[in-house]
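User: quick one - fold this with magnesium ion bound?
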Amino acid sequence: MSLSEDFRQSMPRDQLWPFLIEKQPPAVDASKNILLYVEGLSVSFDGFKALNDLNLYINDGELRCLIGANGAGKTTLMDVITGKTRADSGQVWFGQTLDLFDRDEAEIAALGIGRKFQKPSVFEAQTVFTNLELAMKVNKSIFYGLLSRLGSAELDRIAHVLETIGLQGQESMLAGALSHGQKQWLEIGMLLIADPRLMLVDEPVAGMTPQETERTAELLTSLAGERTVVVVEHDMEFVRSIARTVTVLHQGAVLAEGSMQEVQNNPEVIEVYLGEGH
Ligand SMILES: Nc1ncnc2c1ncn2[C@@H]1O[C@H](COP(=O)(O)OP(=O)(O)O)[C@@H](O)[C@H]1O
Ligand SMILES: [Mg+2]
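Assistant: Sure. C-alpha cells for the protein plus magnesium ion:
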C-alpha cells in the first residue's frame, strides 16, 4: 500500500475532509482587534442546555484560557465554533465579516481555524517528518499534493515547525516512539503547518509530566501574538502559568472573566468551581 493510501485510510473521514477544500478562502478582517465574536449562543441536547446564551469575545493575538467544571460546555463551544455542532440560536463571527454559521466544518478549517482534540492522533507508524509532510500535503491539496515532492519553501516550513515544537533532530523518529508530550507537540505542529489564525486546543497537558507541561506552556505562549490561541485546561497550575485572561464557564454561560487572580478571588467562582475539593 502506498503512503498516501495508507494515510487516507488511517485518517478518520471527519479529520480528512476539512482539508479537501482547494479554493482560496476569504481573508479574516480583525480590524476592530477582535478575532472571534460569540453572541447569545445556545445549544440543547434533548432539552438540556449545554450552552445557554453564551457571550465570548476573543482578541486578535491573545492567549485565552477557558476553565470550568466537567459538563460546563467547553468542548461544546469548540464544537460549535468549528462547525461540528449546530447551535440552536446565537451568532459566531470570525473577525468582522465572516459568519461561521454560514459555513461547514471544512470551510471553517480553511478560513484558518485549527483545532486540536484532547487525544493525540498522530500517525504512529510514520516518522515525525512524514507526519508533518502529510499535514502539509493534505493542507495544500490532497489530489495534487500527495503525489508530488515538497519544494524548498515547504521544507523550510517543516523545519521551522520542528524547531517551534522542539522536535528538531528527531524528525526521523517514528511518531509512535515519542513520549506522550512529544506526540501532543507533534500534533500541534501538524496544525501549525496550515498556519492557522486561530487555534483551539482542548486539554493539551492532560497526562503530561511536569517538565512537558512547562514546555507546553512555553510553546503555547510563544504561538500567541502571531496567532490567537484558546486553551481549555483543567490543570490550574498550567493555567496560572500561561493565562493573561481566564474565562470561567458554568452551566453553558460565562460566570467570570479576568486575570487568574481576579477569577480566583471571585466569590461565585470559588463557590462553584475553585472551592474546596479543587
Ligand atoms: N452530543 C451530545 N449529546 C448529548 N449531550 C451532550 C453532547 N455533547 C455534550 N453533551 C452534554 O453537554 C454538556 C456539556 O458538555 P461539554 O461541552 O463536553 O462539557 P466540558 O467540555 O466543559 O466538560 C454535558 O452535560 C454533556 O453531557
Ligand atoms: Mg470537554
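One thing worth noting: The beta strands are 34-45, 48-59, 63-67, 89-94, 98-99, 113-116, 198-202, 228-232, 245-250, 253-258.
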